[in-house]
């Protein structure tokens, strides 16, 4: 039986789609059968981040309306075994899908896949309600900024009100130089405020932009720091214990981080 | 030339400290899906009860709705945190 994980944030532009693409590809690289669902109807993006935009025939709305079968709408990623995308519709709006339809869809996909990752739109309206409806677990993405953390707090409250307990926090776009001079909240500051468990930290990394340009998730790039962070997060999602700092980064970065966290740099 | 003394002595508040403080305050209100009047009512009732037993510093009384981990540590639960400075315990309360 597959597991449905929603990637959500509240605030827009903090990295939900980037995270969905990278964790999804990471899980496929670990031999899992994975489907990514883009629920951002009207503003679809997961297709371009994944480099699959030219292969769309049917979309999420076609599936729930019964215009096609699920299998017909799933785009198989030929580069990575076991990875599929169900794209959002571009010319409709969020009300074209209901939470009940999402629950039904997720339940059907559970039989075929190990993981169903749901890329949630920004906001707390219909699109959010659809995205979380069928989910078993949630990953809340934030950046180390006041507005993003505030919105994450609101989302955590809404997830818990919807029986999605124990969401995991992903802090994206951390900048060591800024943290070091006291101009960016530390991971500990953010955890202290949000009081939820951390699944991982992704540094602000130019490689994310480069990989998005090419439509190849950074998780496949062995030289990318963000890619390494996403590989670690993928393994944690699979239940592995991966030390938060040690493997997050290369050595130079590691020493800096340890200092930031007040640990001994032995 | 104006010297920024706090900077000279290296104790000035960093912008992330300001961010954290502001976030904590704004979240108290975000999290309390109760009105400020509701909190005021709770506050005055608490003062009433505790005043039967102790003299408290009403002006410094601080009550907030916040979040904490449940005792099993597996969940985040809302918590009412009250900081009530006691001036004196009344003899009748001993
Ligand atoms: N770790 C990172 N380093 C550098 N750039 C990043 C990082 N994460 C995300 N970005 C960039 O930030 C932008 C927004 O990312 P993304 O589209 O994943 O956010 P989103 O939360 O899905 O946005 P929306 O709310 O609009 O759906 C993109 O241009 C992406 O390339
Ligand atoms: Mg997105």
Give the fraction of residues assigned to helices of chain B. 25-40%
Main beta-sheet annotation of chain A = 8 strands, mixed
Uncertain parts of chain B = none
Hetero ligands = adenosine-5'-triphosphate, magnesium ion
Number of strands of chain B: 4
What best-fitting shape of chain A do the alpha-carbon axes yield? globular
Count of helix runs of chain B: 3
Structural class of chain B: alpha+beta
Question: Which spans of chain A have pLDDT < 50 for at least 5 consecutive residues?
Answer: 246-252, 262-266
Number of domains of chain A: 1
CATH superfamily of chain A: P-loop containing nucleotide triphosphate hydrolases
Write down the CATH class of chain A: Alpha Beta
- Looking at how many chains there are and whether they match, the oligomeric state comes to heterodimer
Do you know the CATH topology of chain A?
Rossmann fold
The strands making up the biggest β-sheet of chain B line up spatially as 1-4
Main sheet characteristics of chain B:
2 strands, antiparallel
Q: Any idea what the radius of gyration of chain A is?
A: 18 Å
Radius of gyration of chain B: 19 Å
Verbal overview:
The complex is a heterodimer of chains A (266) and B (94). Chain A is an alpha/beta fold and 266 residues long. Chain A has one domain: P-loop containing nucleotide triphosphate hydrolases (Rossmann fold), CATH 3.40.50.300. Helices cover 41% and strands 16% of the residues of chain A. Chain A has an eight-stranded mixed sheet with strand order 3-4-2-5-1-6-7-8, with helices on both faces. In chain A, helix 1 packs across helix 11 and helix 5 runs parallel beside helix 6. The radius of gyration of chain A is 18 Å and the shape is globular. Chain B is α+β, with helices and mostly antiparallel strands. Chain B has one domain. Chain B contains three helices and four strands; from the N terminus they run αααββββ. The chains are: A alpha/beta (266), B alpha+beta (94). At the A-B interface, helix 7 and helix 9 of A face helix 2 and strand 2 of B. The structure holds adenosine-5'-triphosphate and magnesium ion. The site of magnesium ion has 5 residues of chain A, from helix 1.
